[in-house]
Amino acid sequence: MVETIAEPTPKLWGDCVGELLGTVWLGPNGITNIQDVFAAIIKFQGTGIMPPLGYVDVHPQIPNNLVNIDDVLLLILAFKGEPYPYSDPVPCP
Fold first, then answer.
1. For site-directed labelling of 89, which of 11, 50, 75, 82 has its Cα 20 to 30 A away?
2. Count of domains for the chain
3. Who contacts 5 (Cβ-Cβ below 8 Å, separation ≥6)?
4. Does a structural domain hold residue 27?
């Protein structure tokens, strides 16, 4: 789902996770914030309490089961309010 919160149009995308509750990352919470970026960085580094791969694999348009710097960069852009970079949302598996 691309539209997440009622920010200035276009609505923000990139809502990947909610809060970290103990040792579990909760699912999307309806807001794109620094927590989403932080989760992707942790997954990219491969250290700490990592979110599920499917939560932060946002690049390319069809997820490739890999979190790299491109995923992190796209989530930073989402956090900054940049528009969705792909033509149409891809349905989740």
1. 50
2. 1
3. 11, 12, 15, 30, 31, 32
4. yes
